[in-house]
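User: I need a structural model of Exopolysaccharide biosynthesis WecB/TagA/CpsF family protein from Mesorhizobium tianshanense for a docking pre-check later this week. Nothing fancy, just the predicted structure tokens so I can convert them on my end. Input:
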Amino acid sequence: MNMHTARAAFGVDSLKSILGISVLAVHWDDAVSLLTRLIAERRFTKVTFLNAHNANVAYTDPVFAEALDDFLILPDGVGVDLAAKLLYGASFPDNLNGTDFIPAFLQASARPLTIGLLGATHVNAEAALTQFAALAAQHRFVVIHDGYFSAAQEPAIVERIAKLRPDVLLVAMGVPRQELWIARHIDARHCTLPIAVGALLDFLSGAVPRAPLCMRRLRLEWLFRLWIEPGRLWRRYVVGNPLFLWRVIGQKLSRRPTSARARPGAGPGAGH
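Assistant: Understood. Predicted structure tokens for Exopolysaccharide biosynthesis WecB/TagA/CpsF family protein:
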């Protein structure tokens, strides 16, 4: 499935372009139903999430931006909500951040599935597997490999995924590495839904704490993460968030979606 198919399934207003990236604007339950249907129909679909950080990386990295063109993209966080409000007069129907949405989606999937986990440290991946098994005992969870592997190890990892042929492959290797790795190595021979999930395995393992529920409800989880990991995240949030909104204002003033690939002078960006 691509975004054109999504538009046909959900209507002309189902996509919002944020800095040239098409994001699916649907309610939580509709997103769960969509992914469930894609698995049932064995329709290979690459899935990821867009937040302010990803959008900033894609804005200056044409290779990453081009890879995202072939993903089904769900909205993640208050930044893209503000962008949608500025550009379209309405926020996204729901915040489909992967840390909350993916566990809920797997819990809601009644049919037993095989779920592969790739990324994080081995200890954190195994701890996340234990949490997943408790949350959604109907599924089979398998740790494929941690996220610290060399290019020489990749063929064996890809072969293991192909042999397992999971319904869902959760890839937790950070932006933009996880999306680029999926784009370069994973196709319909390997799984049905490869999903780029960022720090999900670290959160589930308990190695990285979640913000208190009250902060999450106030859409302030980013502030909690900045407080916990200021050295790693200050540039992403303190510099990145205002820069993202400035770029969105530029898109609004141009009155047309901008494309990172078409922007003169765009150079390679860096993820984490």
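Before docking, keep this in mind: Residues 257-272 have pLDDT under 50 and may be disordered.
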